Amino acid sequence: MISTSLRSLERFLLPNACIVCGKAVPQWEPDALVCAICRVRARQLPTGCRRCGQPMPPVGPCRFCADWCDALVWVHSIFWLETETRVMVHHLKYEQCPSLGALMADLIADHARPPAPGWLIPIPTGAKRLKQRGYNQTAVIGRRLSQRWKMPLAEAALTRVRDTRTQTALTPEARLANVAGAFVARPAPGLAKSTLDSNVRMAILVDDVLTTGATLDAAAHALASAGWSSIGAVTFARALPYASRIAAQVHRAKRLFTN
Ligand SMILES: [Zn+2]
Ligand SMILES: [Zn+2]
222, 187 in Cβ contact below 8 A? Predict the structure, then answer.
């Protein structure tokens, strides 16, 4: 009781600052890490390809998911990776802010209808990065999502068997090669039983950011080899399509010169 009052007083005297815009968060949500304005500013993906959600090209079928393995049936990203969401992901991954993972899971659950029930499987982090960071950022998102969607979590279903190079500067082809064979999966629950219920083998991968889908593709491949089925994936953010990224960089550069 006393500690709650002291905490309220501390928040009143020293309000938290939003990690994105730096402004003090309002008193009605004193513990918010990201203010309501920045949360609303995060831009959602429009409807697109029925499998991967990417906006469709002007002509022809979707090329974004064309090379993914058949085991990866659907992928849903909630927001584009730009200003607000980029800061959130950066803090979750590099600024020792694991509690942001719960906020990101809440934003996913607030904006996406729960998928057909399955096991939530966070993409594992390599041993080296896990040691540096102290936590796996996708597991933090997955744990909260498991509460919100009331679905079981299978944190140990996937293991990253080798540390991969950071994907940021790699071409799509190099990303595929970089993550190929990076994961091994445990057998799906139910495989040992005589009566197989396909529902118990359904998997929903959880990741923070999707860029080309190479990581999800490699993880789905490993899960399918271990007997999992109907593999889907949900990610908090998705990298902007190349053309939009270039346009955004030009826009930012122009702003720098005109200011
Ligand atoms: Zn803000
Ligand atoms: Zn697609």
Answer: no
Can you tell me which residue has the tokens 């499987």? 121
From the CA of 60, the nearest ligand is: 2
- Give the DSSP letter string of 49-77: -TTT-PPPPSSSS-STTTTS-TTEEEEEE
The ligand minimizing its distance to the Cα of 34 is 1
pLDDT, tens digit, for every residue of 231-249? 999 999 999 987 666 666 6
Q: How far is the centre of ligand 2, averaged over its atoms, from the C-alpha of 217 (Å)?
A: 13
**Ligand closest to the CA atom of residue 76:** 2
pLDDT digits (tens, 9 = 90+) for 90-147: 999 999 999 999 999 999 999 999 999 999 999 999 888 889 899 999 999 999 999 9
Q: Where are the beta strands (DSSP E) in 103-145?
A: 119-122
How far does the centroid of ligand 1 lie from the alpha carbon of residue 40, in Å?
Answer: 9
The packing angle between helices 99-111 and 137-149, to 10°, is: 40
